[in-house]
Amino acid sequence: MPLGTRRAIFLGENGELSIKDLTEDYKPVGDQALVKVKYSAINPADLKHAFVGIYGSVTGYEWVGTVIEVGNSSPFKVGQDVFGISIPGHQRPLYLGAHQDYLIADGSQTTWTVPKSMSDEDAVSVPMAVQTAADALFNTLGFGFSAAGLDGRDATGVPILIWGGASAVGAGTVQVAKAAGFDPIFTTASPRNHESLLKIGASQVFDYNSPSVVEDIKHAVAQSGKKLTVVFDAVSAGLGKLGESSETRSANNTPDLARQCISDYVSADDLLMSSVLPVDHDPAWKLCIGIRPYGDSFSFGGIIPQDPSFPVRMKKYMDWFMENHESFWQPILRNIIVQGAEKGIEEIQRVADGGTSKEKVLIARPM
To answer: Domains in the chain and their CATH numbers?
Structure first.
């Protein structure tokens, strides 16, 4: 199908964002579908992935739109509204980036029909938050969730600290953790966001800007009568550029702050920590991501080995979520909608710099 000339947001080597004119036509094959995008959602990864070696392509991961053409084995039909997440990768094909007017979606792992219970604006924000939470809790940290057919450690009654609860991933993880049985659930956020996080399942919320935040969390853990051994950093802020962390890393980077909240006298074997960016100065942190391609490795600033069961487990959880989300999922983020590529670039930079709080910025079409 001729698509004409259209615009896209392109990510360069050092995090430069630019507008690129695209002229090539996209043709879905096999289980793929050609989608006319309605909205794409902005995530910090849209810019920050350049600093872990993922650049040279149309940026953006989350999208929602309408199917306009399908491959011969696609499960979707022309006219269906679908949403999904694009597979990351260095210099990935142009047709995979979310911040453009048309893209190619796969039909098996990363694309779903929009449920009747969700608006397009809410659906577009689901994949990164839910799948990153699932990867952290049920893959890298090794917990199970029997309702979705996932074996592993029993999360029931296990305390967890989620640093960055008002981020999209953080708010999603609070709800995923609650459904899995973690308790108590401690998280951090600006004071104005505390009430909404308590409503979706957080047990206690702490002001991350407070100079006593670490002491406050440790006191609350002690009051609970349990030991905190499980931490998820949903923002991984202040780490600097991969490979240059000793020069550019902040003294108050969030992985270091979160680790200080762990209970005293916890052995290395009992310590479970996961983060959304590599923490190269502390190997105890395990990297989680929002999408895992099938296989025994994935591309993230180089080829990284993975347990081949991880993408299968992520898919199982997402399938369970799509069937059961109405019973527990509450979209608490405020959608901010902007129009066009120029404004989109401004917002990608703002989001990457940590300029949002309990917000999700969407880019409306046309680009």
So the answer is: 6-125+333-364 (3.90.180.10), 129-313 (3.40.50.720)
